[in-house]
Specification:
The chain has helices at 4-34, 37-54, 57-79, 82-104, 111-128. It contains five helices and no strands. It starts with a helix and ends with a helix. The chain is mostly helical. It has one domain (4-128). Helix 1 (4-34) packs antiparallel against helix 3, helix 1 crosses helix 4 (82-104) and helix 4 (82-104) runs antiparallel to helix 5.
């Protein structure tokens, strides 16, 4: 049986990583829909580029998730040791980003990235020991 404190720590670490992945995927999808920001800036000026970004629903939702990620990370760091939480969050985020990039953004994730993702997963397992 898993210790409730351990479950609490790993639940918060997983939540932080999941929120980070959601934020990063939404921001990436939002700016991809907008296209080249330099082109928008040349056409509409810097304020036009800022307006385009801030009126992108996906970008705004992504920014919301990234803000939520920041506060969730503060909570996770208040209950977990930094030497565990920081690498675990980074690893889970990396793994989640590779999967989400493939599934939601249609990116081609080559074998080297999957191998690196596997090493990250092994690293998370080693952190639990």
């Amino acid at each position: 049986m898993i210790d409730p404190r351990t479950f609490h720590v790993w639940s918060s670490i997983t939540f932080v990583a999941a929120v980070a992945v959601a934020g990063e995927v939404l921001i990436a999808a939002g700016v991809r829909e907008l296209g080249d920001l330099d082109t928008i800036r040349e056409r509409s000026g810097i304020l036009g580029a800022v307006r385009a970004v801030l009126t992108s629903g996906k970008f705004v939702m992504g920014a919301f998730f990234m803000a939520l990620n920041f506060f969730a990370m503060l909570f996770a760091l208040s209950i977990a040791e930094l030497s565990l939480a920081a690498p675990a969050i980074a690893s889970f985020t990396y793994i989640g980003n590779a999967i989400a990039a493939k599934l939601f953004l249609g990116e081609r994730v080559d074998h080297r990235r999957w191998l690196a993702t596997g090493f990250m997963a092994v690293g998370v397992v080693l952190l639990t020991r």
